[in-house]
Input
Amino acid sequence: MNMSEKSTVETINTLNIENAVDAISHIILGKEKAIRLALACLIAKGHLLIEDTPGVGKTTLAHTLAKVLGLHYQRIQFTSDLLPADILGVSVYNRDTSKFDFHQGPVFTNVILADEINRATPRTQSALLEAMAEYQVTIESETRDLPEPFFVIATQNPTNQVGTFPLPESQLDRFLMRIELGYPDNSAERELLKGKNRKELLDDVQAALSAKELIQLQKQVSNVHVSDAILDYLQHLLGFSRTSGNYVSGLSPRAGIAILNAAKAWALISSHQHVLPEDIQAVLPSVIGHRLQFIYEVTDKQALQPAEHLIQSVPIP
Output
């Protein structure tokens, strides 16, 4: 592919991303930053955790993302009595062949909508661990590959609500980003109150990206240029988290790779030719919000969050 063809492809992909943002914004009002973060997460081959109180649009956003991506998807409602086999599948004895036939579970699709994932027990939650990390599942000693691409978009209720089981750190780390939606502003909420039901509008959403285009975008992410100065900045952020004494534990090398991949994807959807410090700062709260905790309890509601504290404490080189 020559430079002219490459430029044309990148322009088309940028337009498709903007079309996707517009389509989702018609359903989820006033949350463009969260929508762009969600798209960047999936373009970076990450899994997305949406955490907030019930009723602010978590599941609607997950449904809309799946439709806009134009991929096959399955929704799993996580409950306390859900079993791992309900997710992965089960073998059933076939009397005609005298053999066990494997019946695939909903995990064998491109996009899994794991609704209210923390309402299920830790045993059931763990059924997704291998799938999210290795893009495969091992069932009855046999390893089965999952379709490509494969994403998990999970919604989570606040852990202080009745009937929830906190996600273990090992599973939280499988999610590239955790985002929150929050309440809409006055104008967006007025439009929600006056407009159509969002689920009815969801029926009219058309795919803005094909599977082929999505995979192409993912390949472009790895080609986004990162300068030595940006790597210095990222390493300074990682180093401060480990040595400042402000956090329970510092960011791991895997967290550093997650920040870099997310920043590349953010730069791509922002039409940047290379990663800027602003790209890292834009994705940092969503990438490390579920990975970094203060060593002391924060009681002041106006206090900085760990990511904001990290950004203010580490100057750009």
